[in-house]
Amino acid sequence: MRCREGDASSLKEMEMKKVLMIAGGLLCALSWQARAQDASTETTAQAPQAVVDSVGGQPATTTMSGGPAQGLTREQVYQQLLQSQRSGEAARMQELFRGGN
Known about the structure:
The chain is an all-alpha fold. Among the domains are: 1-38; 72-101, no CATH class. The chain contains 4 helices and no strands. It is elongated. The model has no long low-confidence stretch (mean pLDDT 75). This is DUF4148 domain-containing protein. It comes from Paraburkholderia lacunae.
């Protein structure tokens, strides 16, 4: 039985697609493996032993904006609140974000 010319080209196309799919799958698997190894070797910042032993977990080491945490005391935060209320900054922020009591 003889193959027609159209059948031979479609067989070649199927073989080529199969090879490309296998190559793509291997490429994805290898890049995933490399990324997994990179993630496992990253180091994390260690908290001081006194903080680790304290109740309540670890404090945040960065602020929401990405900067280093300042470590303010409650009194310092309260003083900043009073200052923002005196300067009108708190009222501007409430108006800006439509906040209120």
